[in-house]
Each structure stands twice: as structure tokens, then as C-alpha cells.
Amino acid sequence: MSGKTLYDKLWDSHVVTDRPDGSSLIYIDRHMLHEVTSPQAFEGLRIAGRKPWRIDANLATVDHNVPTTGRESGVEGIADPISRTQVQTLDQNCNEFGIVEYGMNDKRQGIVHVIGPEQGATLPGMTVVCGDSHTSTHGAFGALAHGIGTSEVEHVLATQCLVQKKSKNMLIQVDGELKPGITGKDVMLAIIGTIGTAGGTGYAIEYAGSAIRSLSMEARMTICNMSIEAGARAGMVAVDDKTIDYVRGRPMAPKGEMWDRAVEAWRDLKSDPDAEFDKVVHLDAADIEPQVSWGTSPEMVTNIGGRVPNPANESDPIKREGMERALKYMGLKADTPMTDIRLDRVFIGSCTNARIEDLRQAAAIVKGHKVAPSLKQAMVVPGSGMVKAQAEQEGLDKVFLEAGFEWREPGCSMCLGMNPDQLGEGEHCASTSNRNFEGRQGFGGRTHLVNPAMAAAAAINGHFVDISDFYSKAG
Amino acid sequence: MKAFTKHTGLVAPLDRSNVDTDMIIPKQFLKSIKRTGFGPNLFDELRYLDSGEPGKDNSQRPLNPDFVLNQSRYQGASVLLARANFGCGSSREHAPWALEDFGFRAIIAPSFADIFYNNCFKNGLLPLVIDEKEVDELFKSVEAVEGYSVTVDLESQTVSTPDGKTYSFEVDEFRKHCLLNGLDDIGVTLEDADSIRAYETRRRQEAPWLFPAG
Fold this sequence. Notes:
Chain A is α/β, with parallel strands linked by helices and 475 residues long. Chain A has helices at residues 6-12, 39-48, 81-97, 112-119, 150-159, 184-195, 210-214, 217-225, 241-247, 256-266, 317-330, 356-366, 385-393, 396-403, 452-461, 468-474; strands at residues 15-18, 24-27, 30-33, 58-61, 100-102, 127-130, 144-147, 161-164, 168-175, 203-208, 234-236, 279-284, 291-293, 301-303, 345-348, 377-380, 406-407, 428-431, 446-449.
């Protein structure tokens, strides 16, 4: 019999019971909640007269809908009354059910997928779920983490379990040495460009190989974060010393003797050498260039040195039509060099790229320069209050502010534009977020996905530039 | 949950692949704390020519005449015919809520995104996968014949067309059972409460750091 994959191990250790129809009841160790996908779940509990099964497994924060400026007057000061009601509803629900919540002005508040790892609420070997598709982020810790809908949020609250059918195993192996300046974001966009946005549907992906091992925990989080953009609900990376070093000392991480026991168990959170995968994809790290998306799906991506593709060269009629529609929406002509795309706004933030390393990479590019006068706006939105405080301690806020960037309060912000941070119709934005769907960042807005340093360089130049030179000089 | 057994309804064809949940229901409507009322804003950016906002009177907004659901021949449609990877992107359950609220009971596509697919079953909405070639055939038939309706039978796992064709589809036993009977799956899980407690007891021994509160 072949060995087990990391996913097999995580699955097996969480099976409460197998059902005759092939589904299983899976135990959930950590449930994260936010204001947008939870109100109807709490309402469901109340209607059915149910209580949460295990209160201490839940952790809540407000992120999607909160303003990133003017928080002095608190929740009462949220200008949009519908947003205010939603934020207040989470506060009331957490209060009523006794769930810990980092409210809007708590310094630990932030994007749910930033604060979980930051607080040690995410631990190796856990099952982690949240009513948000980017929950896959937490898989970077050797955890089984995925997004769920609101009915399942209610199900987890009420039972601490989910009814699941096991996914297939996919291995994405990235070997070799990454070029200087190539980030987790570029690796992941290159993967999505290779396997497509539905390439991972039905699979749990494990990212492995020497290039993945060489990446920091934060870069691994960026990769796992966008598993859903490759169609997979869950993505994960095996535990190594970097994982353990990152978790050590976090407020909710185990301490003392318990820590030692936990680490011993976590060392086994890797695929066995003889484990078999249903699908294996190889990428050569040395081939990966800085990535920029040109279209309206994350698979519509190319190298910074590339051009907007020409639909005439696409043989599949459905794909060709999709490309033509995307070019029309994006207001781009086929064969335009990516570096010729003029930008209106730049957004550095989101659960994909708003951690301290992301801000450091962007600040290193920005330092001593000014935002191009042709830009309407360039903003930096830290992923959490803790990231913001750390960045300010390092003086990164001053670097951004002196260059003409706005320095905001933490939240999801312009990644999805539920709050006032939105693109105008027809505006092009270099964004470190995860989705370039039509209308995602605002009605008629045009998103180009890039890494934080690329976004920073684009802000200074007013268009995309190849930052490879910067790293080879610094190198 | 509303049960689904057999449904006959007019088919509307949405001929584009990778339809994401942002497209199905844009983010500004996710501020609602209710499960209902999303139908008028289903496919908002495709359906209307202006930008929609919560509370706006949708009956006064300019409709996009090219959008399939605005065409007179598809009024009253309750079966949506779609392309590959339907429902990709965000996990928002507001997407199936909006489809259901609009009046759809079933969605036919060659493939669905995992989270969306799962969310549909929680809301009495049946997503069913049939072969890409069969989906192509259906697109041709629907566009050729006005008033084209199909019958979706969950018990027999078939879709029957007016021209006498029958397509079969797969569905998990548990999901089928819940949908046929309109079951609350939380209630079903709670029948296993003893197993959940036994798991917790065992796990607390193996991995006590997962139970910091004891």
C-alpha cells in the first residue's frame, strides 16, 4: 500500500464518522467568522433554537465592509447605513453567543486570513474553515483549510463539523531557483496560467518542491491563498522549520511542554515519500517571470515582458470568445506590450498581499520616488492592525506617505470594493489582490493582478515596468 | 429547505464560461443581513446598463436588451443552461440565494466550481452536470425553439427534453436524499452528536493544544 499524502493525513485525523454513501463527517478545529457571510447563519441558529457547539473554536473580526479611513468615531461613524448595520450585527451576534471578536477599532482587527496566522489561531494540523473562499490561505501551515457558504457556517456553529466528500490529491511541484524579486504571487499566477481557473476543481492541492521550500511563510500563504483561483478549495504546504518558527510565540500558540508535544506531532505533517497523487504538475522555478494579468479571469495572465494576447491565435471558439469579451471589457488591444498599459490607480493590500513582507517589498521600490502625477490614487491598506503597527515601527508608512501613497486602516478594502474604496468605470488598477473579475473592484473597473513590488513600481511610473533590473542591481 | 423532486420549466441559455459569483451577485448587495430579496439584482451588471445599489428602485433602471434574461422569450425561465466552471470565485451563498429568489430551480452546466455547487444544495437549487457535448446540443435546441422547456427529475437523475432526448446526471446519495426530502442537514448531523463527542474526547488526548479551554 502506498503512503499517505499530507491531505490524506489531515483528512484521516478529522473523520468523526464515515457514512455509507461515501461522505464523511469532518471535525472543524478552527472557525473564523466575518460580518458578510455570518448574519444569516446566526439568524438560522436563533430560529432553530440552537447554540454554538464549541464557542472557543470560533474567532471573529470585521474586515470586508469596514471603512479604511475615519474610524475615530467608531462603528457609529460608518457612513453607509447598510454597512454599519452589518458590522453592528456581527458585534451583537458575537456578544450574544459569547464568541471572541476583534472589533473595528481593536488593534488585532484585520483581514480574517491575516489575523488567523498572526495570532496563532491557525496551527499546523488543524482543519480551518470560514465563510470566505480565501480560507485556503491557512493551508500554508500544513492545515486543511477551505472556504464554505453561509449554510455551512451555520452547520459548523451548530455541530463543529461539516459533511464532506474527500477531494482528489494534486501535487504542484515547483523546483529550481527563483530569480531575484520573484514572489509567491508570481509563482501562483504562473501556476494558474498553466493549469487554468478550473484546473484544481475537485482537488486539494499540495505545493512542494525546492522553490516552495525556499519561500517564507508569508509567500507560502500568498500561494495557498489563491488556490481557489485555480479552482481548488484547499491548498497546502508541508510543515518544516519555517512553519514552526513562524508559529512559535504567537498569542494563541501552545506554550511550554504543550508546545513541544505539538511540534513533535507537526513534524509528521508532510506527504510520505511513496504517497501517490491523482495529478502531478511540474513547474521550473527558473522560468517564472514577474506576472501581470491582462483579462478578467486570473488565468488571463502573462509575463511583464509579454503582450496582450491575440484572440485570433486561439483555436478553441469558447476560449476565443472569452478572450474577445475580456479585451473589450478591459479596453485593451491585442498585441499591446504589457508595459504600455496606463494606470489610474494602484492598490496594495488584500488577504493575498498585505502582510509585513509585502509592504517591505513595496516600500523598497518606492523609497525616494514619487507616485506618477498621472495616477488618481495609490493606496496601501495593511492586512491587520498588527501589520500596520509593525510597518509604522519600521518607518514604512513614511516611505509611502512621502511618495504620495495613502496609508489606510486595515481591511479588505479595494480588493472587492464593498466599502467606499472602489475603482471608477473604465479605470485601470495595478492591484495586489486576487481577482480580476468584471466589476470586482468597482462597476466597470479594470484590474491587473501583480505582486506588491510590481504594483509599487507601476505607481511610480504610471504604467507597468519590469522590476528585474532593480533586483539585479541590488542583487 | 424547499424540497426538489421533479421540475419542468423554461430554459434560459447563458452562453459564457467561467461565470463567477461576483457576476451572479455583485458585492454591494452582500451588505444585506437577510437571505432573501437578491433576485432583482441577479446578474446585476449584465442585466442593467447602469450601476446598481441596494435600495435603488430596479424597475426604473435601464435594462440591457442584449442580456438573455431580458429577452421576452425567456421570461419565466426556471432552468438555467450554462457553460463550464459556473459559479467560480467567491464562496458567497448570496449567489444561489439570488438565483433561487429570481425563480431558478435547476442549473445545467458541464462543470461547476466546488463551493458554489455545494451551496446550491443547501437552498433547494439543483446544479446538474451533463457532458459538454450534450450541453452544446441543448444550447442549440434552446436557441432554435422558442418556449423550450425541460423536465428535471431528481429521483431518476434525468433531464428530458421536448424532442424526446434524455440526459442523465450524477448526484451524491446524501445530497440527493436531503434535497428530495427538503431535509435540514444540521438536524441530520446532530443525530451523530455522540460520535462528535467521542471524537472530541479522543482528540483531546491526542492533541490537547487544539482544546485550549480544556
